[in-house]
Amino acid sequence: MKPFLLCTLCLLCLATRLNAQTLTISGEVARPVTLSAEDIKALPHQEVTGKDRDGKELHFSGVPVIELLKKAGVTTGGELRGENLAKYAVVKAIDGYEVVFALPEFDPAFASQVIILANRVDGAPLPAGTGPFRIVVPNEKRPARWVREVRSIDIRFAK
């Protein structure tokens, strides 16, 4: 492989890894935001317990997603009515994996469970291939929407 091509590939890999250290919230928001791992680490965290696909109980620490959405000016609480109930979030991972959440699933005015953007599991940072951020939905029967290596949340209208 030629040195120039090798350097270009290395730079692409580095850029992807650096992008992995941030979370972008955009779309139908009042103010798009990009938060670094340090920004997220500084926010108030909450602990949740959930079972992985093998049934092993894990203890996660992270920021409730609703708090991150509020930073971007997403419609929440009493404003989440009428046409705003047609909004949804697409959570995207570095590898292209995407899942959808209805906006009310994150909002404590509607939901009794707390969905978090975890950055720690069992007292340690999330391991490579899972972190630095992971969506955790503690009461789901299958962790299919527990997105690993989250890079963005895009808010959209279903209409």
Automatic annotation (TrEMBL):
Q: Name the Pfam families on file.
A: Oxidored_molyb (PF00174)
Q: Which InterPro entries match?
A: OxRdtase_Mopterin-bd_dom (IPR000572), OxRdtase_Mopterin-bd_sf (IPR036374)
Q: Which UniProt keywords apply?
A: Signal
Q: Which residues form the Oxidoreductase molybdopterin-binding domain?
A: 59-154
- Signal peptide range equals 1-20
Asked if Electron transport is a keyword of the record, the answer is no
Q: What is this protein called?
A: Molybdopterin-binding protein
